[in-house]
Amino acid sequence: MTDTITDKNLKARHRAMWASGNYPAVVDDAVGPLGPILVREMQIRAGERVLDVAAGSGNASVPAALAGAEVVASDLTPELFDAGRRAAAEQGATLSWEEADAEALPYEDASFDVTLSCLGVMFAPHHQAAADELLRVTRPGGRIGLLSWTPEGFIGRMFATMKPYAPPPPLGAQPPPLWGSPDHVRELLGERVEDLSARRERLSVDHFTSGADFRDYFKRVYGPTIAVYRSLGDDAERVAELDQALAALGQERDLGGGRMEWEYLLVTARRR
């Protein structure tokens, strides 16, 4: 009973964290191209049944639906769906939006031809449980596609920078950027997949004018960053330290003219 209550509390905090910011703005301003990249990589075809796990506002779901697939966009935080529905309507895409926990998906075994996640499932705290669910709902011969930030890339470094200022993670929780490690993903999926491909790519981002601009933007709109700052409360000294560390990271990764490159891992595999 205690474990069930603890897990429910953890999931409630995760939902509140992602609802606290404005993740659709992050999609519009920076990561928007990644959803279509994943959909193209998966070669999604008309008539296929597709599940987007931790879909957010549908960065990958909408392009998959535009490719002619029957798409379910699922997420623990349904507050993100309104922006996705507006984007789908503007582009003429039809799909389903359903609240779902990536670690306990409410779908039958082997329900989908394609299961994918773009910067989503990586934030489920229990990696093996989430991977098991990805595999369970994908039919034999079906395809799995994952796009995740790498530990060494810019967003991975951002999480590492925030870690000393964040509360200790719950027992058993693992860092999100581990999904950007090829060895970790291979271990999670194991021998239940074949034809696994994992390659590192980079997203060019030119939205920020300086390291401080990047920091202030993420403090304003990105749920995980907002949560860390809230955990510091009125500790002005710690807030100032984190402010300086994030601005320095952003400035360090500025390639000139405000341009950054954010590394991600693109994984594709076929369910045995």
TrEMBL record:
Annotated GO biological process: methylation
CDD domains with a match to the protein in the record: AdoMet_MTases
InterPro entries named in the record: Methyltransf_25, SAM-dependent_MTases_sf
Keywords attached to this entry: Methyltransferase, Transferase
Keyword DNA-binding in record: no
Lineage: superkingdom: Bacteria
Gene Ontology molecular function: any one: methyltransferase activity
Record domain Methyltransferase: where: 50-142
Pfam families per UniProt: Methyltransf_25
Gene3D superfamilies: Vaccinia Virus protein VP39
Entry protein name: Methyltransferase domain-containing protein
Species: Luteipulveratus flavus
